[in-house]
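Quick one, probably user error.
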């Protein structure tokens, strides 16, 4: 019952719809260079990629780990040692990617890590499709929330992510994240220490929905909210049908940026369109 699917799986004996088992499965832990500059910095973000996801978007760049079958099962003690090892290797932060199926275990591992000397910020990198009650278990344990806001349209969210309630669920989750950490705070080196950044991946042919997302952000949050408008959409093995069989155009991207500015949002991050390359996706077939 940790996520909005509420599949009711007893994960001691069966997997949830997210593909998760009773223990967290980690596909990869690494110093990751390809997040936003205030996350990756110069030395990299200490990223822990959890296997499994409660959305299963057809265009997922990490589709090889989406179904929960890749990686090793670790308990809270091993997760703690991974965080501390990444900190020792120079990571600017600990970056938890798709940890939603494992919130109780992650919360316990973070408490142990803090007690054992973890001092760098913890980033929670999320699809946005989260239960508020689960997020409350992370209060005071997460420093930076990095949620997606993928859709407003239930037609799009059902077609591409099998989640017609995505917008309702995500708006509530993002409100809770903002309550916990507030606005983005950077240190003197320009690295995130606390706060929230909303990511939005602009999909080809869906710029109208992107503008509606920006409308929703303005209604829900301050104009100072940091919004990362991502141009990196890359067709995947399951996106052979129109419109997802192509990259976004420069005109589509520029229209969304211009609309964000017209609404008064002023902390907007933009990407070069050459970010839409599969080479930026980690290789999950090698050792963790």
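Nope, works fine. Designed sequence:
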């Amino acid at each position: 019952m940790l996520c909005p699917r509420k599949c009711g799986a007893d994960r001691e004996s069966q997997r949830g719809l997210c593909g998760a088992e009773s223990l967290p499965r980690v596909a990869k832990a690494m110093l990751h260079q390809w997040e936003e500059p205030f996350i990756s910095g110069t030395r990299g973000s200490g990223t822990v990629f959890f296997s499994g996801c409660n959305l299963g978007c057809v265009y997922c760049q990490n589709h090889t780990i989406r179904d929960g079958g890749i990686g090793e099962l670790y308990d809270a003690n091993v997760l703690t040692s991974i965080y501390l090892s990444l900190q020792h290797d120079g990571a600017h932060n600990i970056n938890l990617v798709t940890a939603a199926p494992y919130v109780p275990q992650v919360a316990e591992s973070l408490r142990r890590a803090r007690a054992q000397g973890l001092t760098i910020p913890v980033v929670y990198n999320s699809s946005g499709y989260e239960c508020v009650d689960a997020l409350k278990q992370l209060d005071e344990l997460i420093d930076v929330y990095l949620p997606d806001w993928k859709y407003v349209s239930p037609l799009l969210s059902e077609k591409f992510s099998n989640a017609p309630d995505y917008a309702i669920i995500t708006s509530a989750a993002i409100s809770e994240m903002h309550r916990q950490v507030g606005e983005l705070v950077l240190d003197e080196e320009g690295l995130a220490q606390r706060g929230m950044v909303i990511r939005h991946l602009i999909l080809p042919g869906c710029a109208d929905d992107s503008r509606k997302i920006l409308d929703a952000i303005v209604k829900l949050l301050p104009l100072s909210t940091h919004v990362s408008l991502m141009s990196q959409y890359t067709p995947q093995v399951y996106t052979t049908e129109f419109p997802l069989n192509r990259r976004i155009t420069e005109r589509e991207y520029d229209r969304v940026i211009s609309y964000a500015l017209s609404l008064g949002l002023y902390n907007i991050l933009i990407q070069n369109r050459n970010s839409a390359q599969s080479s930026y996706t980690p290789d999950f077939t090698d050792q963790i």
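Strands lie at 25-32, 45-50, 72-73, 94-97, 122-126, 144-147, 185-186, 192-201, 226-230, 267-270.
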